[in-house]
């Protein structure tokens, strides 16, 4: 356990914080606004103890970046278990270059503590939330961003099969107020289940006031909203709108039988002032629901006029993921996790369908055409048929794709 006493006793003067070279921007659209928020909070904590701090994103140039900074301790963060390789790489380099203790924390460290210790070769693994830093304002001086990340809750009120939240944050805790934490104009909430916050009305009212006073410009939630809470408290839709939330997502992890509930949840958002095209349903695929049913869910989303935000399932103890969407010849379970109810072909097809679907929703078109997207058909033709329905378009544009039907897997139909 890292404690104030231990740190003081260890006579630490300089601490290096390391974010491994995670493929955030390249691979993960869902995590494009990722910040090593745990490290930023640790930085605030260490600075409160008069310890000098430096944050680096690990790359091959570690030596150069730290030539004027000799750390007494190194903190490395971790993210998904299947990105453990990036953590190992960062730890090994730190061990090689600095003869000081290396501590790893974060999601992978919490979910697979033993594996993390052995695989990365670090000195200590910190599992769970670092309580002493939890309520401190992250040290945004270390990063150049115009947004901030806030957690108003820890844990979740639910316990879904595919989710590791319960293991990392077993207690559900809600903050009553966040207004003193606001230091940027754009706020991204990293709550697992924001609407389940016991004081959500108070939090949204605070944000609404800050929005009126022009102290914030917009808010976003990284996770999908729990629509069951929205059904119980439909007035939250209007509060979300007034608080400046954009691109709301409704989580739809269950079966097609939930379609009416999902429609009701979307209707609450629409009646609260959100446009259907800015709403998404957040779906998990490559899991228990097979391809055909996921396609049926996608088509329902099309009927509601909303986009899909997708997440490919990987098991909580998966330690690698080399899925490559550009591999035309396909990949196997040796490359990445493929659920027994899915195939590599279905995963790629579903991903393509979602992409085409979302383009149609965003552009307001009734069909998608790869050749039109790549500007390979005459612009006059593309303009002329931009607003026609799929059947008309198909007569002139050979690769027109219809978002309104379920596209069967060609290998199983
Ligand atoms: S609602 Fe979301 S965060 Fe909560 S347990 Fe289910 S998947 Fe995890």
UniProtKB/TrEMBL annotation:
Q: Which GO terms describe its cellular component?
A: cytosol
Which cofactors does this protein require? [4Fe-4S] cluster
* Signal sequence range: none
The organism's superkingdom is given as: Archaea
Xref: Gene3D superfamilies = Cobalamin-binding domain
Can you name one GO molecular function term for this protein?
cobalamin binding
Query: Any keyword Amino-acid biosynthesis?
Result: no
Where the record annotates domain B12-binding, the positions are 19-153
**Which controlled-vocabulary keywords does the entry list?**
Iron, Iron-sulfur, Metal-binding, S-adenosyl-L-methionine
Q: Does the keyword Cytoplasm apply?
A: no
Pfam families of this UniProt entry?
Answer: B12-binding
- Name the UniProt record assigns to this protein: B12 binding domain protein
Please give the organism.
Answer: Methanobrevibacter filiformis
């Amino acid at each position: 356990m890292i404690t104030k006493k231990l740190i003081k006793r260890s006579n630490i003067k300089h601490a290096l914080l390391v974010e491994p070279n995670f493929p955030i921007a390249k691979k993960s659209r869902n995590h494009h606004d990722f910040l090593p928020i745990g490290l930023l909070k640790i930085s605030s904590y260490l600075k409160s103890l008069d310890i000098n701090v430096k944050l680096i994103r690990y790359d091959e140039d570690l030596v150069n970046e730290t030539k004027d900074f000799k750390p007494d301790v190194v903190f490395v963060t971790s993210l998904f278990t299947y990105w453990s390789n990036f953590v190992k790489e960062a730890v090994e380099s730190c061990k090689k270059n600095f003869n000081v203790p290396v501590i790893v924390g974060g999601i992978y460290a919490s979910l697979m503590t033993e594996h993390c210790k052995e695989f990365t070769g670090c000195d200590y693994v910190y599992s769970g939330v670092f309580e002493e830093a939890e309520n401190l304002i992250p040290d945004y001086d270390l990063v150049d961003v115009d947004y901030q990340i806030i957690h108003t809750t820890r844990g979740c009120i639910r316990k879904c099969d595919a989710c590791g939240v319960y293991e990392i944050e077993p207690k559900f805790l809600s903050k009553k107020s966040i207004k003193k934490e606001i230091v940027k104009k754009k706020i991204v909430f990293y709550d697992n289940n924001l609407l389940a916050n016991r004081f959500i009305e108070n939090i949204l009212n605070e944000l609404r006031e800050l929005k009126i006073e022009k102290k914030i410009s917009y808010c976003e939630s990284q996770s999908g909203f729990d629509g069951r809470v929205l059904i119980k408290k439909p007035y939250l839709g209007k509060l979300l709108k007034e608080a400046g939330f954009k691109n709301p997502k409704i989580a739809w992890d269950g079966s097609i039988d939930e379609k009416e509930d999902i429609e009701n949840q979307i209707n609450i958002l629409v009646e609260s002032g959100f446009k259907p095209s800015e709403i998404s349903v957040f779906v998990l695929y490559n899991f228990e629901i097979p391809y055909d049913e996921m396609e049926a869910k996608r088509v329902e989303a099309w009927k509601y006029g909303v986009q899909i935000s997708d997440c490919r399932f990987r098991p909580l103890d998966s330690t690698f993921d080399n899925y490559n969407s550009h591999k035309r010849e396909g990949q196997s379970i040796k490359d990445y996790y493929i659920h027994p109810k899915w195939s590599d072909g279905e995963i790629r097809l579903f991903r393509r369908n979602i992409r085409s679907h979302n383009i149609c929703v965003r552009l307001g078109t009734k069909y998608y055409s790869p050749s039109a997207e790549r500007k390979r058909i005459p612009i006059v033709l593309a303009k002329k048929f931009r607003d026609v329905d799929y059947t008309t378009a198909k007569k002139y544009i050979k690769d027109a794709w219809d978002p309104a039907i379920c596209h069967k897997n060609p290998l199983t139909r």
